[in-house]
Design a protein that fits this description.
The chain has 6 helices and 13 strands. With about 260 residues, the chain is an alpha+beta fold. A hairpin with a 4-residue loop joins strand 10 and strand 11.
Length: about 260
């Protein structure tokens, strides 16, 4: 278990480092812990929160419950024969109505409307061509997908198209810390989190000798500078990756 955290440090160690540097007593620990947790959230969302990949079953109403530590999605899709994730397209038109009910599909599909397809070709009604409204026949541009999805954050589910034909999805998502567990951050962010504590410790104090505007401004500047340095250390640029990226961009330019 210890090897899993060899490149990480505890939130507690950063708090104690700041208490020592600022020559404060441990009675400030409670306040500083909450400030540090907020700092970990801010840095984690931008840089180092863990990306998890899970295989989730699809319920009979074509929904998938989100994991409890879900923060934001990176990919939603299914697997191909090479172990790659084939992404679903995001469909903002899917309604969240009745998405927690077992009869969701029957309540959200209206078969009394006219058919929008002729010989499997979609029809786009009332398309403005610049002069008049017409009916446009054809298919959407872009690569074909295996279905559509929409995230309903308020109810904690992923909505899928009525015709989605798989019994699972692959979800890659940013996982946030869960209350009650030990909190770790990459060691490269130690100084950034200490700088955050130094800034937020006085950020909302009245303008006094301890919390003057110049000191607040300097501490804010120190935090963003340490944040930039931490990101550069955490995600260094490797020449091989840069070469591969340049090669891929060249291929795309040639195809275009």
């Amino acid at each position: 278990m210890a090897s899993q955290y060899r490149q990480f440090i505890t939130l507690d160690s950063c708090i104690n480092d700041y208490i020592t540097e600022s020559e404060q007593s441990n009675h400030k620990y409670y306040k500083l812990f909450h400030l540090a947790f907020r700092g970990m959230e801010q840095l984690g969302i931008d840089f180092f929160y863990q990306i998890k990949s899970v295989k989730l079953p699809v319920l009979s109403n074509k929904t998938v419950p989100l994991p409890p530590d879900y923060q934001n999605y990176q990919k939603v899709g299914v697997l191909n024969g090479g172990g790659e994730v084939i992404p679903l397209r995001y469909n903002s038109k899917l309604t969240t109505y009745a998405d927690l009910q077992s009869e969701r599909i029957s309540k959200t599909v209206d078969n009394t409307l006219f058919d929008l397809y002729i010989a499997n070709t979609p029809i786009f009604y009332n398309y403005w061509n610049g002069e008049v409204f017409i009916n446009l026949y054809g298919i959407p541009s872009g690569s074909p997908t295996v279905g559509g999805f929409k995230i309903d954050d308020s109810n904690g589910v992923i909505l899928l198209d009525e015709n989605f034909g798989y019994d699972y999805i692959i979800l890659e998502y940013i996982a946030s810390p869960i209350e009650g567990q030990d909190y770790f951050i990459p060691m490269q962010f130690r100084e950034a989190l200490i700088a955050w504590l130094g800034w937020k410790d006085i950020a909302n104090l009245p303008t006094t000798r301890r919390g003057n505007l110049g000191d607040k401004r300097d501490r804010r500047h120190d935090f963003f500078n340490e944040r930039r340095l931490a990101n550069a250390r955490y995600r260094p640029l490797y020449l091989e990756q840069a070469y591969e990226l340049n090669l891929e961009m060249t291929r795309m330019a040639v195809k275009a």
